[in-house]
Every structure is written in C-alpha cells, then in structure tokens.
Write a structure and sequence with these properties.
Elements (H helix, E strand, L loop, with lengths): L1 H23 L27 H10 L1 E6 L3 H15 L2 E6 L5 H6 L9 E6 H9 L3 E2 L21 E14 H6 L20 E4 L6 H11 L9 H5 L3 E5 L2 H7 L7 E5 H9 L5 E4 L5 E11 L5 H11 L2 H4 L10 E2 L19 E2 L7 H17 L13
Helix pairs in contact: 2-11
C-alpha cells in the first residue's frame, strides 16, 4: 500500500516538474518557435534592445521568405539563425542577383519573397529605380562604416564589401627577388611581365570591374590607356574568377588581379604563401546588400530581418560558411586574420547606372585597341568558358 502511494506521489512530482520546465522555456517548440496562438513574452535577444514592438509585430505575422543571392551555405545559416533568435518561421530560395529584377517585374506589388539578401548593390539600385523595393530606416544602419554602403532613401543597405586587389605568391616572388606591387601604377613595371592573371573582360568578374573602373575613374590608374600598358604584363585572361583562384598558390599564377575574398578563401584552404594587397591609390569594389521588396507579405518580419542582416549575429556567419567578403559594420569582425591591417577607406564605388550596352561597347573598344596595338587577343590567352 505504501509502495503504491509512493509511486503516485512520484508521478505527480514528475508531472509538476515537466510543467514547470515548459513554463520556464516560454512554451517554445524545439526550434525556438512558439506554438501558434501562444505568446511567450517579448524579450529581444542581445544586440536588438529596444526592438520589442517590432519583434511582436513580426511574430504576429509568423513567417518570412528570403530571396538570397549569396553563397547558399551562408544563406541557409543566416535564415536558421534568424529563426532561432526571433522565433519566426523562415524559408529561403536562391536566385542569382542579376535575375531578381526580371522575376520581380513579372509580379509587381506581389513579390514571391519578403526580403532580398546578398544581391549586389548595383542590382538593388536597379530594382529600387524600378519601384520594386520598399524604404526602411534601419536602426542598425548606424553601424555602417561609410555612406557608400547605404542607399540615401533607405531602399537597400550594404552587408559586405569585396575590394579588387592583388593576391600575390610570396614564395614565387622571393625566388625571383621581386617585391610585391603596392598599387596600380607599380603593376605596370616590367618586372611583373608575364606574371599577372585576371579574368576575361567578357566575364562579369574582376577583369570587367577593372575595365569599368579605368573607364569611370582613370585618375586612379594614371589615365584611360592603363589597360593597354597593363596588357604587356598579363600572362592570361582566364575564363572566370574561379579559374584564377584555382591557380593561386600553386606556382602557376604569381599575381592575381582578383577580388580579395578569393585570396582569403585560398589562404583558408592552406595556401599560406599568399598575401593580400589593397592598391595604394584606391580600388573599386562590389557591395552585397539587403533590401525589402515593395508589397512584402510580412513587412514587419522583413524590417526585423534588415536589423538582423545589419548585425554581427548575421554577418559573422559568413566566413564560417565559405563567404569571405568584408563586413561593412564597425561592430563586426573581419573574415580572416589574413585580412588584418587592410585599410578599406580607399575603396570606391562605381556608377551604378552604367548600362549593359555601355559596358559591352567599352569591352569591344578595349579589345579592338589591344588588337591594333599588336597584343595577343587569341582565344588561348583570352579564355572563355
């Protein structure tokens, strides 16, 4: 009899303990999302103080759909972290940055996603001009290190920047008794003849950004004939940035005119003989951004995502997921110790309104000028996929 009584008492205590545990957890499910219809109390995570009202409104909407144009592993990690932090169901779809405007214009005012994450600032600006984005005055935009990384009307905000620079093989240069170049002017020195690689101008990568920069800001390069002189030192115009990156650190490519994130990726892969150089005169860059689509079905969740995207909680996930661009937030860490000491104040933005037709004409004129100057413009040197 006493044994039966003890069993009943034990069972009651176990039920009580379980109930207390559920209460302490705020009634959340395993993935941190409160069951539908329950209010677990609005407590903002660290770093999001004062956003209780926005969080409550976002949770009332219940979900968020993200259109992502960054590395998919980073996109997935960011969405998972947002869901864990705020208890809002988050789904995503990957769409190439250059395709978003065409897709969005097909359903104006009824976007398939609430926010766009990782698209280029140029593409975001084009979507903004087309009336496809909604303005938002983000509180966390105060952490941006430069106005270069934000739209004046709040249509998009930068999350990272990838400068164009030099990735040099220190061991190879040491064997040749040559110092690494420090800037665009020095890159023209005859010592670097046949040592340079970059991507073909016809590919939308580092080579094309260099071509556009020379056209728009010739003062950085000592004049608009820079590419004709540089060509004398270029061994190969590869089919893509990846084709250049693969040969960095192997002895094939001694100096790559590349996005510095590609160099960091190679260093992180074990190519510790590589060094990053940010040109002393200044350099163009590509900026990745986040934006809210006009007509978003979950506007408050979209605003909360913007605050999240402009926080270390989001941008510091990038490096762990193979994305080595530089955060543009003053309170976020750089992607790698190999990037320590690089001064990004010389980074410049190009004219975002430059049309594809203008760029194509510039490429054609450059290739014609090279051919007339007697340069090798064969398919073996100017490679294509």
């Amino acid at each position: 009899m006493e044994e039966t009584h003890m069993k009943k008492l034990f069972t009651r205590l176990l039920v009580l303990a379980l109930a207390l545990t559920l209460t302490a957890c705020g009634g959340q499910t395993a993935n941190g999302i409160p069951p539908e219809g329950e209010d677990d109390g609005i407590v903002c995570p660290a770093g999001f103080d004062g956003m209780e009202e926005l969080l409550a409104a976002a949770r009332a909407e219940g979900e968020l759909t993200v259109c992502g144009s960054c590395e998919e592993a980073y996109l997935a990690a960011a969405c998972q972290r947002f869901e864990e932090l705020f208890g809002i169901r988050t789904t995503y779809q990957y769409v190439a940055s250059g395709s978003v405007q065409a897709q969005s214009q097909g359903t104006p005012g009824h976007p398939a996603a609430d926010v766009w994450f990782g698209g280029s600032a140029e593409d975001c600006a084009a979507c903004g001009d087309a009336g496809l984005l909604a303005a938002y005055d983000a509180a966390h935009a105060s952490h941006l290190t430069d106005d270069l990384y934000r739209d004046a009307e709040g249509l998009w905000y930068g999350i990272s920047v990838d400068p164009l620079g030099f990735v040099v093989d220190r061991d190879m240069l040491k064997r040749m008794a040559i110092d690494a170049p420090t800037g665009w002017a020095e890159l023209l020195d005859f010592r670097y003849q046949e040592l340079l690689w970059t991507s073909n101008y016809t590919y939308d990568g580092a080579g094309r950004l260099l071509l556009r920069a020379v056209r728009q800001q010739p003062e950085l390069f000592g004049g608009d004939n820079y590419l004709l002189t540089l060509d004398e030192n270029v061994a190969l115009y590869a089919a893509s940035d990846a084709a250049v990156t693969r040969c960095l650190g192997t002895g094939e490519c001694v100096i790559g005119i590349s996005f510095l994130s590609d160099g960091i990726a190679r260093i992180e892969d074990g190519c510790t003989n590589l060094r990053l150089v940010l040109p002393a005169e200044g350099t163009p860059c590509r900026i990745a951004a986040t934006a809210i689509f006009k007509g978003a079905a979950h506007p408050n969740a979209a605003k909360l995502w913007t605050e999240f995207a402009l926080s270390p909680a989001c941008v510091e996930l990038a490096a762990a997921n193979g994305c080595f661009q530089f955060p543009v937030l003053g309170n976020a860490q750089r992607p790698s110790t190999s990037a320590a000491g690089l001064d990004l104040r010389g980074v410049v933005a190009l004219d975002r309104d430059e049309s594809a037709d203008v760029i194509d004409t510039c490429i054609e004129e450059t290739m014609t000028a090279l051919a007339e100057a007697g340069a090798d413009v064969s398919a073996e040197r100017f490679q294509t996929p």
